[in-house]
Write a structure and sequence with these properties.
CATH superfamily of the largest domain: Response regulator
Number of strands: 11
Organism: Adlercreutzia faecimuris
CATH class of the largest domain: Alpha Beta
Helix content: 40-55%
Number of helices: 8
Keywords: DNA-binding, Phosphoprotein, Transcription, Transcription regulation
Protein name: Response regulator transcription factor
Largest sheet: 5 strands, parallel
Structural class: alpha/beta
Distance between the termini: 42 Å
Shape: elongated
Pfam families: Response_reg, Trans_reg_C
């Protein structure tokens, strides 16, 4: 799986940084590690990695701010990001996922688990990149998975990676209601006890962006109370 794919890791603890680099390189990856955001962003301007590992507690710019900047930049918004941090509370996990992280691993973590999760994220990114286009046959929303583009009423809609994948999954299952757990599994490829709030938060921001581009388009993403969410072309439910 590895094939010398490049991974960046931002971590201020030299011991953890060195152990992680060693584990990744033993698994066949090319790993570059940085103690802070400055060196990371300098390297990012020169070469974009296949995946990024981020600690939250960093000197200067913290991991969450780094993540926000990555998701706000068209060049880096689609890069898989895993948060690696000593903070393991439900709140911190939700904050990281809601900010756009693709996975979350709390310290202390085993290197075998880390490598396994890295491989899983990279496989998922490859599947998403290879997914066929899923345009809406009718209605105001059109999604092109190959070009990674969404329009609502003909107006381009800028979505994060997870917002895009959430909409893609809902559209691919038009007429079905998916539970929050099903969406967490299909979009985030993980199970997490606090994940329902992450799904709800992403549905809210997705609807806001659709409505801003084409008022009324947000109504196609419907809520079925007590069950979950769906996509229903022509349905005005919420």
């Amino acid at each position: 799986m590895a094939g010398q794919q490049l991974i960046y890791y931002v971590e201020d603890d030299a011991h953890i940084r060195d152990l992680t680099r060693y584990a990744l390189e033993k698994a066949g990856f090319e790993a570059r590690c940085f103690p802070d955001a400055d060196g990371f962003f300098a390297a990012l301007a020169d070469r974009v990695p296949a995946l990024i590992l981020l600690d939250i507690m960093l000197p200067g710019i913290d991991g969450l701010e780094i993540l926000r900047r990555l998701r706000d930049d068209a060049t880096t918004e689609g890069i898989p990001v895993m948060m690696l941090t000593a903070k393991g509370t439900e709140y911190d996990t939700v904050v990281g996922l809601d900010a756009g992280a693709d996975d979350y691993l709390a310290k202390p973590f085993g290197m075998m688990e880390l490598v396994s999760r890295v491989n899983a994220l990279l496989r998922r990114a490859e599947r998403e990149a290879a997914a066929p286009a899923t345009p809406a046959a009718e209605g105001p929303i059109a999604l092109d998975a190959e070009a990674h583009m969404v329009t609502a009423g003909g107006v381009p809609v800028s979505l994060t990676l997870k917002e895009f994948e959430l909409l893609r999954v809902l559209m691919a299952n038009e007429g079905r209601v998916l539970t929050r757990d099903q969406l967490l599994d299909q979009v985030w490829d993980m199970a997490f006890a606090g994940g329902t709030r992450t799904v709800d938060a992403h549905v809210t921001t997705l609807r806001q962006k659709l409505a801003a581009a084409c008022p009324g388009a947000e109504a196609l993403v419907v809520t079925v109370r007590g069950v979950g969410y769906g996509y229903r072309r022509g349905d005005d439910g919420r």
